[in-house]
Design a protein that fits this description.
The chain has 306 residues and is mainly alpha-helical. The chain has 14 helices and two strands. The chain has a domain of 206 residues: Orthogonal Bundle (MetI-like fold), CATH 1.10.3720.
Length: 306
């Protein structure tokens, strides 16, 4: 008998779905743990939810939140500027610039942020004062280090230099992700190095730079909580000042966690849309090299080769 004649028709077959026993067990355990956590949050009096609501919009907490946001924005802007410069130096053919950039990244990424904070806050132990002296003119001005190196300034300098070490590697990796043929083609058309970097390299590198930069911004927001050690009046410091008097430690820490999670959520949403903006070329299956160069010539002044 032919084999085709012995096979049952498809409608006569019984389809047995694959059973995922491990998935069911994992889901059940997760639901049990989640239920226990929710029960503890709802019934444990130590959380003191009325006190959480009382301090959620307390003026001191809001001022501390504003200081935290100001620190994050200021430090991140400076870190991006410094990191970009260091990344370009790192890619420079000059051995001196390359070595300096490598040493900068090695040191400021390697030294813990807390140690750098404490060091800059105590800079007056090394440098007592800053002065400007010109030959045949004398000293123009002198200012004590403690008058300049306030807790806020020390926090901005320390964390900016620290974060710039990470941003330098992010920018360098983004620039290296652009095919070398892009810059070679642009150079053959008479574009100088600065214009190639601004019109060809960086725009294409942004889709590789933006995602890790967004993650670094979120990480920096949380890292700013370290500045409480040098008495910067940030969000955590404001909460500590309150619970040091009222002994309502847990509710105040919940308030701090709530505001950090709220800001991180907003930043994550913004990062998502920025990634979509810079990744739109992937959605359009990418622009050709000729189209990229035509756009560069359209928006930039390029000296046409003779």
């Amino acid at each position: 008998m032919d084999r085709a004649e012995t096979q049952a028709p498809p409608e006569a077959l019984t389809v047995v779905p694959l059973r995922h026993y491990g998935l069911w067990v994992g889901t059940a355990i997760t639901l049990v743990i989640l239920g226990l956590i929710l029960k503890a949050l709802a019934t444990n009096p130590a959380f003191d939810w009325p006190t959480v609501g009382k301090y959620l919009f307390h003026p001191s907490i809001i001022r501390g939140l504003g200081q935290t946001l100001l620190l994050t924005i200021t430090i991140m802007v400076l870190a991006i500027i410094i990191g970009t410069i260091v990344a370009i130096m790192r890619l420079s053919p000059s051995r001196v610039l390359n070595a300096f950039a490598s040493a900068y990244i090695w040191f400021f990424r390697g030294a813990p942020a807390l140690i750098q904070l404490i060091f800059w806050f105590n800079l007056s132990l090394i440098v007592r004062e800053f002065s400007l002296t010109l030959p045949f003119v004398g000293t123009l001005f002198t200012i004590k280090t403690n008058d300049v190196m306030t807790p806020f300034v020390a926090a901005v300098i320390a964390l900016s230099l620290h974060e710039a070490g990470y941003m330098a590697e992010i920018v360098r990796a983004g620039i290296n992700s652009v095919a070398s043929g892009q810059t070679e083609a642009a150079g053959s058309l008479g574009m100088n190095h600065r214009l190639i970097l601004r019109r060809i390299t960086l725009p294409q590198a942004m889709r590789f730079i933006v995602p890790p930069t967004g993650n670094e911004t979120i990480n920096l927001l949380k890292t700013t909580s370290l500045v409480t050690i040098i008495a910067v009046n940030d969000l955590l410091y404001a909460a500590q000042s309150i619970y040091a008097r009222t002994f309502e430690t847990i509710p105040l820490l919940i308030v701090v966690a709530f505001w950090y999670l709220f800001v991180v959520t907003i930043l994550s949403i913004g990062q998502h849309y920025i990634e979509q903006y810079y990744g739109r070329s992937d959605q359009q299956q990418g622009a050709s090299l000729g189209e990229t160069l035509r756009r560069a010539f359209r928006f930039g002044r390029v000296a046409q080769p003779a």
